[in-house]
Specification:
With 96 residues, this protein is mainly α. The chain contains 3 helices and no strands.
Length: 96
């Protein structure tokens, strides 16, 4: 199956999302190459004991793939929520 391409709701944010991923996963304690932040999935998989390798992973279960993606995505969502809360707090303080 061909890899699907990512389409973000806001055009032009792809690089920013990759930077966010790299920063978040680095803060989670993973070694991240800022030029290849998607490669952090292999390190996450290794930590979880999931045999994810570059190339074909046809034998990998959906549950295993979801564990890897969930750890990365969940961390990113938590950080985005924290940033949004911080912005709301700052804007409320400025409007007083």
């Amino acid at each position: 199956m061909a890899r699907r391409s990512r389409r973000y709701a806001v055009p032009g944010v792809a690089q920013g999302m990759q930077t966010l991923k790299a920063n978040v996963m680095k803060n989670e304690g993973f070694r991240v190459d800022p030029d290849r932040p998607d490669d952090v999935k292999y390190e996450v998989a290794k930590e979880l004991g999931i045999p994810l390798q570059p190339g074909n992973n046809g034998a990998l279960t959906t549950e295993s793939a979801g564990q890897v993606g969930g750890k990365i995505g969940g961390s990113m969502v938590r950080e985005m929520i924290r940033l949004a809360q911080e912005q709301l707090t700052n804007s409320e303080q400025q409007s007083r």
